[in-house]
Backbone:
């Protein structure tokens, strides 16, 4: 079967750095997406990785290792507005997105 | 541009009732999707469409029907609602369906079936 695993909840302090991990087992791989979802709102796109390595976009970075079936999202200089759920999704061989359950990130002052 | 819009935002149904959720996008996207989101689970694909007049089943299609008569609209129908269909429903669209196709989501419809 296809499976995406990410921690259910994480807590971090304002101004700090946090790393949210995602491991996956899917039938085929056509890229990995990270989305942010604030409570009661729609998911919004953060990043996309298809090749191994690090993609940096401002305070957010995303890393991919295809051989290990592993990705992480790194958030730097945390702000209170970063409190949200972070969803990992893998595009499988049929170009369908398989979604993880999401990681709820709580930022404390 | 409004992006992706969904109506209604909230709805309460009784078991056995039917309803239609409407999704509209103004980005001229070819692909459209209906997902449901339940606590502790990832988004699950119900049905999707790769273009006007086409539809296909996703992971959890039972109890739902869809239609895409116009490119900008994608309708999700519940024929006979059941409590198990209580969920948040998201519509999304993307330019095409290949790699690196960001999906744009609507604000969601919160459905409760009593």
Residues:
């Amino acid at each position: 079967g296809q499976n995406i695993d990410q921690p259910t909840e994480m807590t971090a302090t304002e101004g700090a750095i946090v790393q949210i991990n995602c491991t996956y087992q899917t039938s085929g791989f056509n890229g990995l997406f990270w989305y942010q979802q604030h409570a009661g709102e729609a998911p919004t796109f953060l990043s996309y990785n298809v090749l191994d390595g690090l993609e940096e976009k401002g305070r957010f970075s995303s890393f991919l290792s295809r051989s290990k079936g592993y990705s992480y999202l790194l958030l730097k200089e945390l702000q209170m507005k970063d409190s949200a759920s972070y969803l990992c999704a893998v595009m499988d061989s049929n170009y369908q997105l398989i979604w993880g359950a999401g990681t709820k990130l709580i930022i404390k002052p | 541009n409004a992006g992706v819009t969904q109506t209604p935002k909230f709805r309460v149904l009784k078991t056995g009732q039917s309803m239609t959720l409407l999704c509209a996008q103004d980005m001229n996207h070819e692909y459209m999707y209906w997902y449901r989101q339940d606590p502790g689970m990832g988004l699950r694909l119900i049905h999707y469409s790769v273009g006007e007049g086409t539809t296909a089943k996703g992971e959890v299609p039972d109890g739902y029907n869809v239609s895409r008569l116009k490119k900008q609209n994608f309708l999700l129908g519940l024929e006979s609602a059941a409590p198990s269909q209580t969920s948040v429903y998201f519509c999304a669209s993307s330019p095409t369906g290949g790699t690196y196709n960001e999906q744009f989501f609507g604000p969601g419809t919160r459905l409760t079936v009593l």
Notes: The longest strand of chain B covers residues 87-94.
